[in-house]
Amino acid sequence: MRKNPHRQDNGEFRELFQSYQQLKEGKHHSFIYEDGFEQIIDYLIDHEKVNEALEAAEIATSHFPYSSTLMLMRADALLSLRRYKECLYILDKAMMLDNHDLSLYIIKTDALLALDRQEEASELLESALELFDGEEKIELLFELGDVYDDYENFDKLFDCLKLILELDPNNEEALYKICFWTDHTGRNEEGIRLHQKILDDNPYNELAWFNLGAAYQGLKLYEKSIDAYQFAVAINEKFDYAYRNMGDAYIRLRKYKDAIESLEKVIMLAPPEAVIYEAIGHCYDKMDNYAQARLNYKKASRINPEDSQLYFKIAGTYMNEGVWHNAIKSLQQALKFHLMQPEYNLALGRCYQELEAYDEAITYFGNVVRIRPRNAKGWIELLECLHLAGYQSEGLEYVNAALEHTDNKPIFFYFRALFQFASGHSKQALEDLEHALILYPKGIKTFIDLVPSILQHQPVVDLIAKYKGSGKRKKP
Fold first, then answer.
1. Is the pTM of this model over 0.70?
2. Domain spans, the chain
3. What pLDDT digit, counting tens, does each position of 246-268 carry?
4. Please, which of 34, 112, 357, 460 could form a disulfide with 352 given CB 3.0 to 4.6 Å?
5. What Rg value do the Cα atoms of the chain yield, rounded?
6. Do residues 284 and 261 touch, judged by C-beta distance below 8 A?
């Protein structure tokens, strides 16, 4: 559609519009040509007077019934007013006059989609592709891609973008979009071939290098992805997304120093993001540089102060350094956002246990088993803490609960034996220990680690010797 031709001469347009008003009122007026009606309709649309624009279009088509352009303008106004069926009726008439106007297919597609007739919309555009070439064909392919997106046929959407790039290998919009859809559809191998072909003829196309790297990354070929990203940043040294993805690839390869270098480039080139500082913190964490890890986690938390995971990670750095009180402060901050998050409660329990504040530790371990009663990990932590605290009778009570909730997981028979021995019930303890050794021989290590002095009891030593090696697979 033409836009605002009336602005070329305001005086002439005022005269034209006055003639139109006289025509509406049935008064004497000068003749209005077809392009004059087009200017009037455009003017009314620009001033958001859609009902008046439709009225003008109806008057115009009554004077010029064979004008496909005026019919399209009328259909466009009907579309804006959500009168979709009337819009389609006018478009069908317009198509009989001229089926080579791109706007016809765009407007009709919008109307069909509004009526939830996606399949008809896609069929319309597919048939129209044969009628157009060059930029118009590319525009239709983008439109068709949007239709496929609308009803989630993502493979066909990928095909549309691929066709666009075959017509125009440097089309930035298509290059940006196909990167996402290559990953989403899992068509990474096809994406690699497509972008290699583009780069054969356009070796300085930074987006094609980036997309090639992303496709390699989707196949976990991280070394190749890094090579592609390095070409991208060689062409455009300010390509922050290439540095971002390169950093992720280095992390996957556990090359944390290189990852930090790439991610720090992102910080230099783009507005600060919590996820980048968090990734740098992760790298320092893996390198056992807990002070630097903590510094970057804190930077991330200042940007995103409601992300509880960041406080949990800060606590982890303190725990690795054995600074338990500081770890507790960070974990309490995390709990403000997610009070009953099992991971946070488990970590708090461990901190208090290290400080020998057993009652507090038991409280937090207790939270874990209440939240996830079928998970053995929380029960094991709670039972170990009860043993260290000397709460043997309570331990017996909780170990029975653990067995009930975990379908008699064998490890808990070792714990029951432990508490039975501590409570002076040697006979029952030996029965539980033997049962545990039959079911899960490897669990004996946990049992001995908790109470090494148990090896001073000959019946226990004899029992262990009896089942020694029973957990090993027999050679054929």
1. yes
2. 410-476
3. 999 999 999 999 999 999 999 99
4. 357
5. 36
6. no
